[in-house]
Amino acid sequence: MSDVAVAEVGLFDRAWKRVSLLWRDMAASVGSPTADASWEGRMRACLEARGGEVSARARAAGLAQSYQTAPEAVDKLAFFQALAGFDSDFKAVEAAMGAVSAAQDTASRAAAKAKLRQALEPPRLKLLTQFTTIPDGMKFLVDMRADLMLLMGHDPMLQALERDMRGLLANWFDLGFLELRRIDWSSPAALLEKLVGYEAVHKIRTWRDLKNRLDSDRRCYAFFHPRMPEEPLIFVEVALVQGLSGSVQKLLDEKAPVLDPRMADTAIFYSINNCQRGLDGISFGNSLIKRVVTLLAEELRGLKTFSTLSPIPGFRRWLEEQKDAPDLLTEEEAKSLTEAAGTPDGNAAIALVLAARRPLALPWIGKAEPVLTRLCARYLVLETGKDGRRARDPVGHFHLSNGARVERVNWRGDTSEKGLKESLGFMVNYLYDPAKIEEYHEGYVGEGSRPATTALRRLARGSR
Amino acid sequence: MSDVAVAEVGLFDRAWKRVSLLWRDMAASVGSPTADASWEGRMRACLEARGGEVSARARAAGLAQSYQTAPEAVDKLAFFQALAGFDSDFKAVEAAMGAVSAAQDTASRAAAKAKLRQALEPPRLKLLTQFTTIPDGMKFLVDMRADLMLLMGHDPMLQALERDMRGLLANWFDLGFLELRRIDWSSPAALLEKLVGYEAVHKIRTWRDLKNRLDSDRRCYAFFHPRMPEEPLIFVEVALVQGLSGSVQKLLDEKAPVLDPRMADTAIFYSINNCQRGLDGISFGNSLIKRVVTLLAEELRGLKTFSTLSPIPGFRRWLEEQKDAPDLLTEEEAKSLTEAAGTPDGNAAIALVLAARRPLALPWIGKAEPVLTRLCARYLVLETGKDGRRARDPVGHFHLSNGARVERVNWRGDTSEKGLKESLGFMVNYLYDPAKIEEYHEGYVGEGSRPATTALRRLARGSR
Amino acid sequence: MSDVAVAEVGLFDRAWKRVSLLWRDMAASVGSPTADASWEGRMRACLEARGGEVSARARAAGLAQSYQTAPEAVDKLAFFQALAGFDSDFKAVEAAMGAVSAAQDTASRAAAKAKLRQALEPPRLKLLTQFTTIPDGMKFLVDMRADLMLLMGHDPMLQALERDMRGLLANWFDLGFLELRRIDWSSPAALLEKLVGYEAVHKIRTWRDLKNRLDSDRRCYAFFHPRMPEEPLIFVEVALVQGLSGSVQKLLDEKAPVLDPRMADTAIFYSINNCQRGLDGISFGNSLIKRVVTLLAEELRGLKTFSTLSPIPGFRRWLEEQKDAPDLLTEEEAKSLTEAAGTPDGNAAIALVLAARRPLALPWIGKAEPVLTRLCARYLVLETGKDGRRARDPVGHFHLSNGARVERVNWRGDTSEKGLKESLGFMVNYLYDPAKIEEYHEGYVGEGSRPATTALRRLARGSR
Amino acid sequence: MSDVAVAEVGLFDRAWKRVSLLWRDMAASVGSPTADASWEGRMRACLEARGGEVSARARAAGLAQSYQTAPEAVDKLAFFQALAGFDSDFKAVEAAMGAVSAAQDTASRAAAKAKLRQALEPPRLKLLTQFTTIPDGMKFLVDMRADLMLLMGHDPMLQALERDMRGLLANWFDLGFLELRRIDWSSPAALLEKLVGYEAVHKIRTWRDLKNRLDSDRRCYAFFHPRMPEEPLIFVEVALVQGLSGSVQKLLDEKAPVLDPRMADTAIFYSINNCQRGLDGISFGNSLIKRVVTLLAEELRGLKTFSTLSPIPGFRRWLEEQKDAPDLLTEEEAKSLTEAAGTPDGNAAIALVLAARRPLALPWIGKAEPVLTRLCARYLVLETGKDGRRARDPVGHFHLSNGARVERVNWRGDTSEKGLKESLGFMVNYLYDPAKIEEYHEGYVGEGSRPATTALRRLARGSR
C-alpha cells in the first residue's frame, strides 16, 4: 500500500494519504507480493502495466523506494544488471535489419529504418520514464545515473544502460527547459546551504563569506529544472569591478569596500560549478555564461568587459613534465635564475620552485616571476593535449570552445594552498567579447587556432 | 538580427532587445545570408552549429520564424520535406547492422545494438530539439506536428518525421512533467477564453454559461506543461450533485440552484477535451480522471460515487446499419412499435425515428423508449468494433480501458440537436469504482470482458 | 460557535473549522446568549472584551454576520443608532475641557489637550476596529459606510458616526497602503467582471468590448488595498495613440486596427472610475493619474503627451440655463443660426438644438458647430460654480485641481445617447504636462486661474 | 530632485529614476530651497501641500531622508521638537469647547464634540501620514518612534507627539492587518539573519543552532505587516515533543534526535520575541500564541497540550529582597539548610545561594532544591507587584493575562549563565488550555485570581 501512497504524491501529498483508503483494493492488489519479488520480477510487473498505466507507475514508485533504501552497493548493482537486461528483442531487431537491407528506394528505406529504430528501443527506457512521476523523480533519476557511473565499470550492458539514461536526461534537461534564476541573500537558506556544498573552485568558508559573495556588487546565477526546482544544476559567481581583476583573494576579501554596481565597467566570472554528477556530459556552462553576459549587459549599462578569472589546474603538472626540456629556458633566463637562486643551472632553479610547498615564500621568487609568467603564457596559448589540437589546460579548453580568448596572465592570482600547488599561484583571464565569440569559437573548434592578445602571444613565443 | 532577438528572449524579453546592440556583430554574422538560403541550407547551418550551440539556436529561431510566417501550406510542406531529408546516414547504419550481426555474445551484442541505435538517430531530431529554446518553442513544436499530420499524407519520409516528433513530444509530455491545475472564475480571462475554444463536447455558448460551469458546485481541472504554461493540454468538467445525473441539459441549466458542494455525494465528469491536436496519440485522459477523483475524494468527504455522463457518438450510426437486421427487435417489441407508429413493422418504426430531425417530437416516441433503451444497452455492452473485441463506441472504449464500467443508460440525456443526431438523445454513465478499476481494466484489456451492472447486462441481452 | 469559526478564519479557513471542536468550550461561552441580545447589548459585550481581545473579536465577527444578514434597512438603521450611542463620556470630556482651560503654559496645555482628545475618542471606534479581523473585514467596513451614508439623513449622531468611519478608513486607505496593479486580459475573470460593473463613464457592453479595452495598445491600471486584494478601488483606462484623440467612439471601435504601442506618442486617459461608494471623500484619482503617467513614460519612451478625453457632464444643463441670456450669442452668430435653422432669432435656434433629442441629426447642425464650440470653450474656461471660483464643470474641476490644463474641445467627441444628452456630443481633452503640473495646480487652487491653450482662451472670450 | 526620486519609488524604483528627467521642472521647484530651510520651515511646506498632495509627499520624502541622515541625536531632537510644535490651534479649540458646553441636547452635543475632536487633531498627524508613501515608509515611522521614545524624556510636548505616533501605528498595525507566516529553513537567508538578531530569550549562537530550531520537529511563526514585508514584528519558537519539557538546554540540543512531528503530543512555546522597539505598547503576543495554537492543532491532530517553557526573570531579585523576611523559611527548612550549608542560620544559607555565581556548583545545592522550588512556586502563584494585584513576574503577568495557568516549576530548567543569574536556573511552564482560556483570563483580569495546578498552589502556600 505504501507504494501507492508514494506513487502520485507530488503536490497532492495529503490528498493521497487519505484517499489511499478509498483506493484500498487497488492498492492491495498492487502491493500484494507478485509471483516474483526479485528486481527483475518487479521490473517486469511495471512494464506489463497490469491494471493500467497509473497502477504501473505506482509499482515503479515502490521499486524506486526499494532502490533508494537498498543497503549495499551490491544491491544497486543487481538492480542495474536486472534493468540492463530489459534490452530490445534480438529476433525483432534481426527481422527489422533484414527489412532495411531489402528496401530498394529511399522512401521504403526510411520507413524500414524507422521500424528498426523502434525495434531497437529497449524496454528499460519505458521503466525509466515511469520514474518521472514519483515525487522528486527527476532528482532520483539523476542520482541513479551518478550511482550507475560509479558502479558500471567496463560492463558493456551497464554502459549501454548508462547511455540510455544519458539520452533520456539530455532530452529532459535540454536548454529549452532550464530556468535561469538569480541567487542572492534573499534566497532560501536551504538553497544557499546547497551552494556551499557545491562550490568546488573557491570553497565557501563561512556564512559571512557566502553573504559577501552575494553582496550588491556580486551576482550569482544558476540554471534550474522545473522538475527539480530546489536543486541548482550549475551556477556561476560574478564580481562587478573596475578593470580586470587579477587576484581571487582580493575579490573574496570580506573587508573590501562594496562598489556601487552602476560604477562597474567589468564583470568577472570567477567561479562556475556543476552541481549534479548525474548530469555529467550534458553541458550547460557555455549557455549559462552567455545568458548571464546578456542579462548583466542589460541591467548595468556601464559594463563593457566580460571576463573570467580562472584557475590553471594543469600548469604545475605540465611544468614538472617540462623541467628537463632543453629549450624550456633561454640562456639569459637560465643565467638570471641561477644567480638568483644560487643553484648551478636554470632548470634546477625551476625544479626548486616546483618542489617548494610555498613558492611565494622563496626570497628570490620575484626574480623568477618573468620566467614563470612567460611559461604560463606558453602553456595556455601554445601547448596542446594528446590530440595535438585542443588546449592542454581543461579550463582553457572549455572557455576557448565557448569563443573566449586568453587575455591576461596574473602572477599571485590565487595564493591559496590549492592555487600554489596547481599553478604556482597563477590565474588567467579569459575574455568574452560578444563581437568575436562566433569567430573565435569557429577558429578554435575548426582550425585549432588559439585567440589571445598580441602581447600574450608574443610572450608565449618568446623563447622559440 | 531579428533571429537573435527572438532566439533566447524567453523571460528576458526586454533584456535581449537592448543587448542585441551589444551582440550586433554576432547577430550580423548569424543573420547574414548564408551561401544557401533554402530550407535545406538553413537547416544544415543549424545542424553544423557554426559559432557554437548558442549561435545555432539563434539560427534555429530564425528558421522557426520563417516557418511560422510561411504564406502557404506548400511552403510548409517543403519545410517538412527538407527536414525529413536529414535522416540517418545509410552507410553508417549498414556498418552498424553488420556489427550487430557479427556480435557473438550478449554483451558485445548489447554494445553493437547501442551503436546501431545511435547510427539510426536522424540528425533532424537535433534540429527539432533546438526549437525548444525559442519563446513558446514547445507550443511551436506541438503546432508543427499538427501541421505535419495534416500535410504528410502517405509519404513514408514524412511519416517517419512525424514518428520522430511524436517520440520527442511523448518524452517531453510524459505524465511526470504535467501539472494539474484547477480552473475557476478567478483564472485569467485569456485562459478561460481558450477553454471556450477547446470545449467540443458541450459547446460553451456564453460567458454566463462558462461562469455557471465554474460555480461552487462545479469543478474544472486541466493538465499543463511547464513550458506551455498558458495552454491547457486536456481538461475535464465535473458537476457535484446528489445521485447520478442523467441529463446534461439539467447539469448546464444556468438557472438551476447551486448545491452546497459539501452536500454532494456524486461527482459527474460530463466533459473531457483534448486541446492540442499536435499531441494526438499521447494520452492524458486516463491519468487526469484518476488524479481528479483522488483530489475530489480528499476535498469533499461526502463524495461516494464518481461517474461520467458521456455521449454515445456511434449509437445512431450503428442503429442505422442494424435497422434491417431480422433479430433487431423481439416479436413483442415489433408488435408494440407497429401499433404505436402505425407502420407495417417495428423495424420500419425504428427507421422512422432515425429519419426524424427531432425524434423526441414524434408523438409515439414514448412507446419506443423501452425498445431504444434496450438497443442502446446492447450497443454499449455487447457490440464490438472491427477487431471483434473493443467496444464499438469510441468513448465507451476509452472509459472501459481506464477501468470504468457501464452503469446506466439515460433516455433524453442530451436533447441538443447534436445529441439527438448522434444518439437519439441517449447518454450513458460510466462509473469509476476505485476498488474495481484495476480488475475492470485487466478484464477489458486482457479478455475483452465488458463490465456493466447486472441490470444493464440483462437488458442488453434481452433479445437474444 | 459559528461566531468563533468566522472570527479568525482569514487564511486559515479550514484550520478553524476543525479546531473549533478543540476550542468548543470557549466557543460555547462566547456564543452563549448574553443577558442582552439587542444590538446595544452585543456591542457592549464586544467593547468589554470579556475573555480577552481574541474573544471580543470573535463576538464582533458574530455581530458583523448579524448585520450582514439583517433583513431590512430599518434593522441596519437600528444598528447604526446603537453604535452611534457609544460616544465619548460627557463628564470626562467636561473635566478634560476644564483642565485645558486651566493650563497656563504651552507644555501643560499640550498635555491637557492630548488628554482631552483621548477623552473625546468615542468607544465605537474600538468596535469598528475589531471588525478588521474578520475575513473580508475591510470590505465589510467600506460597505457599511456606504450603507450608513444612505441611511443617515440629517441625524447628527449618525453623521458623527459617519465622520468616525471616514477617519478610520482614510487612515487605512492612505496612499502609502495602496498597490498599483495593471489589469489586462490575463487578469482573473472575476476581477474583469467587476470592472464591467464599476465602469460608469463609458459602459462596457460585451466581453469583446472589454477585451478590446485591454488590447496591446490599451492599458488599464487600478489601485488595490492589501486587505481587499480582489476589489479595485479606482481604475483608469488608457489608450495609446498618435496625436490627441477627439472621439471616444473611435477609441472604443473594436474593429480599429491595433497600434504597436512603441509607435504611440500620446496616452489618452479616457475613463476613470471610483469603485467603492464607501470610500467617498477619500481621494485617489489625482495620485492614480500621476503614477500611471510615470509608469507609462518609463515603459514607452515614445510617449510625449499625456491627456484625458473627458466628458463635459454639465454643459447642456448650463446651456439651457443660459438660453435667454442677452449676451450669449454675438449678433452675427444669432443671424447665422437663425438663417440656418429657419427660426426667428438665434436664441430660439439654440433652444431648438437643446430640445433636439439627437442634435447631430439636424440638417443645419454643421452651421451651429462653431457657435456651440465657442460656448463649450466658454463653459469650460470661464464659467464658475456657486462659489464664483471653481470650474463649474465637476470633471473640469477635478482635473484642474490636479494640475491639468484645458487643451482642446472636440465636436462629435461622444455621439452616444448619453454624450448627446449631457454635452451635445462634445468632449474635452485635459492635458497633463509634467513640467507645469505644480504651477497649474497652484494657480487654480490658489487664485482660481484656469490654465488653457491660448486658442481656447481666445475662443472662450470671443463674445465678450 | 533626489527628493522626488525617493518619494514615490516603491515598486517602481527604476521607473521613477528615469522619469525624473521628464518631471524635471516639477522636481526642480520642489527641490528648490524654500524660503525657510529649517525643520519647521520644511514641515510647513509639506503641510501646506503647495503643488498638490503628490508634491507634498515628495517634500515629505526629502524631509525623511534628511532625518535619516541627521548626524547627531541633537538634530533628531530638534526635528521632534519642531514636529511637536505643529499642534492644534488653541483658539479653535477654545471656540469648539465653548460650543460643546453650550450644546443643550444629546444630538447637538454629539455634533459639537465631533467638531471639537476635529479642532484638536494636530497637524503633525498629517505630516506623519505623508511619510507612509516613501519606500519603507512604515519601517521609517516605526524606527522614528523608537528614536522618539529614547529622546523624549519628560517633555510634555514630545510625549504628546509620541502618543500621536502610537495612535497612528496602533491603527495601522491592528491585528486585522497582520499576516501570520511560518519561518523555516526555506525562508530567505536575509530574514533568518534578522531572527538571529532579534532573538533575545535564548540567543541563537550559530547557523547550525538556527537550523536546528527550524527542523521538522520545530516550528517558528511570525507576524508581518504588508507594508514591512521583510521585517518580522514578533515571532515565536515552538518545539514539538512528547510530554511537558522542563529544560531549555535539552530543547536546544543540536544532537538530540529529531522526533516525527506526528508522534508529538505537546507543543512547547519556548521563546517569544518582539522585534520592533518602535511598536512598544502595541501588543501582538496574545494573538500570535492563539493563532499558532489553532494552526498546530489543525496540522497535527496528535497535539493535546499547548504550553510554554518560560523564564522567570524576576525570581532572583525578589528572593534577594526577601532574604531577611522572617517567614520566608519554615523552621524545618531553615534547619535543614543550615546543616547542609554549614552556616549558622537558614536565611544566611539563602543569602549564600543568592551570592553564588553558579548555584548548581554548590555541593549541597540538592538539599536546597525543595526549598527553592517552594519559594519559586510562591513567587509565581502568590506574589504581586506594586498594585497588589498583578503577578509580580512580568512574563507571568503576560501569560496569565492571556488566559494561561501556571503548570509546573522546573529545577535546572535553564542552566545558562543568564538563567542561573535571573532565576537560579528555574523555568516554568504556563499551560494554554483552550477550554479554560476565557475563564482564566476573566478570573485574572477581573479578580486577580491566579490559576495554577492544585499541587503548585499547595506548594506555594506551604509556609503560610
From TrEMBL, chains A, B, C, D:
Pfam families: MCD, MCD_N
A GO MF label: malonyl-CoA decarboxylase activity
Domain Malonyl-CoA decarboxylase N-terminal: 86-173
GO aspect biological process, one term: fatty acid biosynthetic process
Malonyl-CoA decarboxylase C-terminal domain residues: 176-433
Domain of life assignment: Bacteria
InterPro entries: Malonyl_CoA_deC, Malonyl_CoA_deC_C, Malonyl_CoA_deC_C_sf, MCD_N, MCD_N_sf
Name of the protein in its database record: Malonyl-CoA decarboxylase
Natural source organism: Teichococcus wenyumeiae
